[in-house]
Amino acid sequence: MCYWVGTKKVREEMLRRLEQNPEDEIAQLFYKTFVGEVRLPFREHYVAIGKARPEISVLTPGNAGRTQFQNMKWGLPWSYTNAKTGKTISREMINSTAEKAFFVHRNIIFKKRCVIPLDGYYEFFHFTGEVYPHFIKPREGILFAGGVWDEHVNTQTGEISHRFSIITTPPNPLAKRLHNNPRAPNGPRMLLLLEEQAIPRFLDPKTDKDALKSLFKPFDENQLEAYPVARFLRKEFADKINTPEVRKPVNYPQLSLS
């Protein structure tokens, strides 16, 4: 569920936005970071698979409240101690549910939030025992997903890395139809997609809990569209997974029955 995202078209869209509106702050920052001064390499993926821990370019609040881009690994280590057994349970959170975010991420959610620019994400539709990947994309422009991040120290090497998890919400009707895996532990979900005007509020460390909760809602399905694509997780597709082939619409005759 929501474990596969795309960023390949973000650069193209940011440069288009900057050309149309030189005062576009996010596009300005993108250009300055990845094109003009080339402070960082922009991480472009036709499909980034969360479980592979890919690096993705994300927006975070910088010093003195200035927004900045950083490259972070997708997948936030998290652990807790069972009060009854005393055992520590650890896992890597690719996604985090909005309903539990204030408990699970209570140490970081008020000061370490991030926004991930995407050109879309992939969801897997289940029908008659088969699985059909679909690409969910904006009708116009790009998407901005909300997440949380933290520093992670490798206890063996001492290496410090920045890691993030994308927040998910209950689905809108489109996402509910496509994310229909009967074994999904939290039922149908979708990424927390933010309206662009809400990004400053989401990133601002001063935004309080109630204001944040008001942003944790399904994104308007009328701003999205989806279509089936190749079964890119199969071994025979391995050499094409980060190519345009993963974005091409595929006609599955079986889906006409759904």
Largest sheet: 7 strands, mixed
CATH architecture: Alpha-Beta Complex
Helix amount: 10-25%
The chain-level structural class is: alpha+beta
Uncertain stretches: none
Please outline the helices and strands.
Layout (H helix, E strand, L loop, with lengths): L3 E3 L3 H11 L4 H12 L11 E2 L5 E7 L5 E8 L1 E6 L6 E6 L1 E3 L3 H4 L8 E6 L1 E8 L2 E9 L4 E11 L6 E10 L3 H6 L11 E2 L7 H5 L5 H5 L10 E5 L30
Parallel strand pairs: 4-12, 7-12
Antiparallel strand pairs: 1-2, 1-9, 3-4, 5-6, 8-11, 9-10, 10-14, 11-12, 12-13
Structure, described:
There is one protein chain. The protein has a single domain, classed as hypothetical protein yedk fold (Alpha-Beta Complex), CATH 3.90.1680. It is 17% helix and 33% strand. The chain has six helices and 14 strands. The strands form three sheets. Strands 3, 4, 7, 8, 11, 12 and 13 form a seven-stranded mixed sheet that branches. Strands 2-1-9-10-14 form a five-stranded antiparallel sheet. It has a two-stranded antiparallel ribbon with strand order 5-6. The model has no long low-confidence stretch (mean pLDDT 92).
Notable characteristics:
alpha+beta, single chain, 5-stranded antiparallel sheet, 33% strand, 7-stranded mixed sheet, hypothetical protein yedk fold
Structure in a nutshell:
By secondary structure, the chain is α+β, with helices and mostly antiparallel strands. Helices cover 17% and strands 33% of the residues.
